[in-house]
Amino acid sequence: MYKLFYIIFRPAFLILNALKLMRHLYIIRKFIFFIQLFIIVSALHAEDGHQLWLRFDKTKATFPCFSGINACDSRFAVKEFQYDWNEMTGNRLQVVNVLNNNTLVIGTLKDRNIVSFGVGNELKQLGMEGYIIKTIHQNNKNITVVASAGDKGLLYGVFHLLRIIQTNKFPQSLNISEKPSYAVRILNHWDNQDGSVERGYAGHSIFWRYGEKHPTVTDKDKVLWKEYARANASIGINGAVLNNVNASPDMLSGAYMQKVKAIAEVLRPYGMKVYLSINFSSPSALGGLKTSDPLDKDVVKWWNIKAKEIYQLIPDFGGFLVKANSEGLPGPQDFGRTHADGANMLADALKPYGGIVMWRAFVYNAGKDDRAKLAYKEFMPLDGQFRDNVIVQVKNGPIDFQPREPFSPLFGAMKRTALMPELQITQEYLGQGNHLVFLASMWKEFLESDTYCSGKGSTVAKITDGTLLKSRLTAIGGVANIGEDTNWCGHHFAQANWYSFGRLAWNNRLSSDDIAEEWIRMTFSNDSNFIKPVKEMMLESHEAVVNYMMPLGLHHLFAFGHHYGPEPWCDVPNTRPDWMPKYYHNAGEDGIGFDRSATGSNAVEQYISPLREQLNNIDSCPEKYLLWFHHVPWHKKMKDGHMLWDELCYTYNHGVKQVRQFQTIWDKAEQYVDSERFIHVQTRLKIQAHDAVWWKDACLLYFQQFSKRPIPYDVERPVYDLNDLKKTKLNMTEHN
Ligand code: GCW
Questions:
Q1: CA–centroid distance for 175 within its chain
Q2: Catalytic-labelled residue, pool 348, 370, 428, 543
Q3: CB atoms within 10 A of CB 203
Q4: pLDDT value of position 73
Q5: pLDDT reported for residue 269
Q6: How far apart are CA 553 and CA 546, in angstroms?
């Protein structure tokens, strides 16, 4: 926003400066005053996306005609409601003691009126975070009730009521009761203490600043954290890991802990707990011990003391997230111990205070097998060995947040261990800050995948939320896409992914269609001429990115390091082979794809029957996963009659066309959007369209060397030359 502001108003400032030299003239002084006023007012009205979906002041909806509010005005949730109602209507609701027709009642079980409605049992069953929103008919009066057993639930209920109003969906009669799908709904910030964000595309960290040995907290920080917490509460997110999983030991030192405490204080009223990523070698690296062996009694003592210190500062501290023995980080295996030994030792230290350990299963060290099999091989033998306050955090797919992956076979296999899905909201492998990709569709595909662990219908959603496999702990984590950018997420449409993560964590049965519609209505407009095409664009966007990047089960064709553009040819000497695209696509004259069937790496064996057999057979394997599980000859006939090579060409081409269509949809939507957000998105769609062609040409021209077949003539001709593309080295500052 500031850049645009600068471009528009800089000439005005220059004229002003010139005029100031003559300011002794009264008339010129007045002129300067009015120009300044104009600049300030214009800046206030500029639409920079900072309000996210919480734009009550711009709600153009039909408001319910509440006659007054019966609620305790000092309750946090009630204050939030009154504030937002005032933003929407220009008035606060008048507090009333007598229940008249159309009174709004907001309260918990501590309020007499709520108890008198006879909803006590229902509220107790919904728990401290659940709530009801109901129209109750009493003495010929209609009363709208928002109630919960606890304050957190009440806040969620209030935000739900506001959402119904904002989206213009307030009905004649309400009968809503909700409780969350997962107990822990948490953002993982990959924020480093120097203020950088690993795989972040929206500016610096909102928590940490460059060059601060002794972190400071300013009023501005607190305002930003408050806005962040409020946005999270509005979608039900109740926790945040404040630092990168590639954690530095000094995160647990006194100076940083003071800042963590300050953050916790701002987040607490919004029902959010703070968590930290820890470095497993902290006892030696920070504490000066000789070892960090989890079975060493001094190490155990060190963690016990550390836990005590943390809880003295932050009584509701959530717990630890741990990346151990993964990508070079230390872990219990360095001392001949297992993941369970490491996780349990930390869990015991946190247990007295109610803290949890989220232990990541993102590991791929075990021997020379197929990378897709390694996490399973390391974790399956430990099933049932973890404490009940440990939850194993598993990425949605077996490799690493690719545009499309089958679900990780650990889901469904580890039946005696609590597992939490880890999703990536930040678009590391999906066009980063530039591509419009609505991730709810991808996450739904994952959550609805059938693991068959307790027969047909054992979806990932049902086994992780406790419906099918009972576990004391349920959780879901998302790697945040939030930074200091004014619009928080870089791309305005990336806000929809933050929103979707929260909504699905709250209710994993919601459809991506419903989520998209809510978000569009709240963020942009309630006008159906806008909603319909934009929603279609969002719902198609995940399939589009798969089509122009990695269709038919291809994966990891990315440029080394930054993971933005295509480099199927990439070959960095002395690097792990499983970091190289060739390891995954295996393109040769005989075909393309990774044979993970029984004749290959046999990764299919990790899936449960009958899925195992379905994936193993080249003819029954879903085509969207074909090259993930099979090495397929170029001439293999696909379901639509094309041979594989032609199908690949058509699919890449279709991806390009889809993005061009998105550009048209967006351009047509101009009349419904403020110019600032319109231009911002339009500019990025241009980059996306350019990138889609780049991906198509790079992959097709490279694979054509092996297929030795022509690109069908109804496919758009390449505009690039393969040799030029190979020489292109991306300047990431342009693209981030
Ligand atoms: O996706 C890969 C990323 C790393 C990340 C790692 C992980 C935080 O490229 O940047 O490190 O996974 O999930 O630990």
A1: 30
A2: 428
A3: 20
A4: 86
A5: 98
A6: 9
Q: Are the beta carbons of 450 and 411 closer than 8 angstroms?
A: no
**pLDDT in the model for residue 34:** 54
**Does residue 143 contact residue 91 with C-beta atoms inside 8 Å?**
no
CA distance 669 to 231: 26
Distance CA 180, CA 184 (A): 9
Confidence (pLDDT) at 53: 98
**Per-residue pLDDT, 43:** 46
Whether the CB of 401 sits within 6 Å of ligand 1: yes
Distance CA 385, CA 500 (A): 33
Q: How many angstroms separate the CA atoms of 223 and 84, rounded?
A: 17
Choose among 348, 273, 278: nearest CA to 318.
273
At 234-262, the pLDDT tens digits run 999 999 999 999 999 999 999 999 999 99
190 lines ligand 1 (CB under 6 A): yes
Q: Is 428 designated active site?
A: yes
- pLDDT at position 31 is 55
Instruction: Establish whether residue 630 lines the binding site of ligand 1, counting it when its CB lies within 6 angstroms of any ligand atom.
Output: no
CA distances from 262 to 255, 314, 354, 565 (A): 11, 9, 20, 39
pLDDT of residue 438: 98
Please identify which of the residues 194, 327, 571, 613 carries the catalytic annotation: 327
Annotation says 400 is catalytic: yes
CA atoms within 13 A on the CB side of 214: 0
Residue to mutate (ligand 1; options 197, 205, 246; most atoms within 8 A of CB): 246
Read out DSSP for 535-566?
Answer: HHHHHHHHHHHHHHHSGGG----BPTTT--SB
Q: Assess whether the C-beta atom of 196 lies below 6 angstroms from ligand 1.
A: no
Extract the tokens encoding 611: 């899925």
CA gap 96, 92 in Å, rounded: 12
pLDDT (0 to 100) of residue 731: 65
Q: Give the number of other Cβ atoms within 10 Å of residue 254's Cβ.
A: 10
pLDDT at 7: 44
| 336 C-beta neighbours (distance < 10 Å), count | 9
- On whether the CB atoms of residues 473 and 183 are closer than 8 A, the answer is yes
- Pick the atom of ligand 1 nearest to 323's CA: 14
Helix, strand, coil percent values for the chain (each to nearest 5): 45, 10, 40
Question: In this structure, what token pair is assigned to residue 72?
Answer: 């305790």
**Which two tokens mark 260?**
């963590």
Phi, psi of 528 (to 5 degrees): -65, -25
φ/ψ of 581, rounded to 5, equals: -55, -35
- Residue ranges of alpha helices (H) inside 281-432 are 282-285, 297-313, 339-350, 371-379, 410-413
- pTM to 2 decimal places: 0.94
Q: Distance between CA 609 and CA 183 in Å, rounded?
A: 30
Point out the ligand 1 atom lying closest to the alpha carbon of residue 246. Answer: 8
Q: Tell me the C-alpha distance between 530 and 665, whole Å.
A: 9
Q: What is the residue type of 199?
A: R
* Residue 240, strand partner residues: 187, 274
Region of residue 18 (left: phi > 0; alpha: psi -120 to 50; beta: else) = alpha
Stretches in the chain below the pLDDT threshold 50? 1-23, 38-44, 733-736
Both tokens of 589, joined, read 């004259």
Strand partners, 558: 566
